[in-house]
Specification:
Elements: H1 14-26, H2 45-51, H3 63-71, H4 79-90, E1 99-103, H5 110-117, E2 127-131, H6 138-142, E3 147-150, E4 168-171, E5 175-178, E6 186-189, H7 194-198, E7 203-204, H8 211-232
Helix pairs in contact: 4-5, 4-8
Length: 234
């Protein structure tokens, strides 16, 4: 795969970024476009995402692709949810018939993952509960999970008393925590209190090295899909 990175200054205007996207939409060298989020405050994220050619939207965030995912006929599944699904399936934890609790409602992870896993299709068919910052009695809900996905963005937010024995835990969090003992001055921690929760869990993903590499892999899958769609059509 050929790739090119366009590093833009933080003072880039919305119009300038739209011009670049328009040129990439029309450039046959590129089958996929990924806009690194978040964007500077002067640029409206929704405007930029909607400017992408849906057939080149390898993040799966364009409203067209979100709608196709909701209908159960996606061209592109957002990379992190797709990676989570593959982690479960390839390790023998088919979500079918299981109660999956998703902690987080972002457009990148929480919402598309819930949509993906409740579909009537192989690799899905789960009963899904989505929790968020306004959820009351969070621990009461997370303790019901057969599969718990933590995508909160707060280090060690999920503790051992919030899960049941035998739970399968997917930790999506990547949080920088100050650590003067590390050369970089910080360490990475997930949203789950790994040591304590792993003592109760049947399976748990580490941070780093768990969901992150799968996200990258599924972005490559989406890029291949985009190339096929461009060449062969639907």
């Amino acid at each position: 795969m050929f790739s090119e990175i366009f590093h833009l200054d933080e003072t880039t205007t919305e119009a300038e970024l739209l011009d670049l996207i328009s040129s990439l939409n029309a450039d046959p060298r590129f089958h996929g476009i990924l806009v690194q989020l978040p964007l500077p405050p002067q640029i409206e994220e929704t405007v930029i995402i909607e400017a992408l050619d849906p057939i080149k939207d390898v993040d799966g965030l364009h409203p067209f692709n979100v709608g196709k995912l909701l209908q159960g006929v996606p061209d592109f599944i957002p990379a992190t949810p797709a990676g989570i699904q593959q982690i479960l399936l390839r390790n023998g934890y088919d979500p079918a018939g299981k109660h999956v609790v998703v902690c987080g409602r972002s457009n990148i992870v929480g919402k598309p993952l819930a949509t993906l896993l409740l579909q009537r299709r192989a690799g899905s068919n789960a009963t899904v509960t989505v929790t968020h910052t306004r959820t009351a009695n969070l621990a009461e809900i997370t303790r019901q999970a057969d599969i718990l996905v933590a995508a909160i963005g707060q280090p060690r937010a999920i503790t051992a008393d919030m899960v049941k024995d035998g739970v399968v835990v997917i930790d999506v969090g990547v949080n920088r925590v100050d650590d003067s003992t590390r050369r970089r001055g910080y360490r990475l921690e997930g949203d789950v209190e790994f040591e304590a929760v792993s003592a109760k869990a049947e399976a748990i993903t580490p941070v780093p090295g768990g969901v992150g590499p799968m996200t990258i892999a599924m972005l490559l899958v989406n890029t291949l899909t985009a190339a096929r769609l461009s060449i062969h059509g639907r």
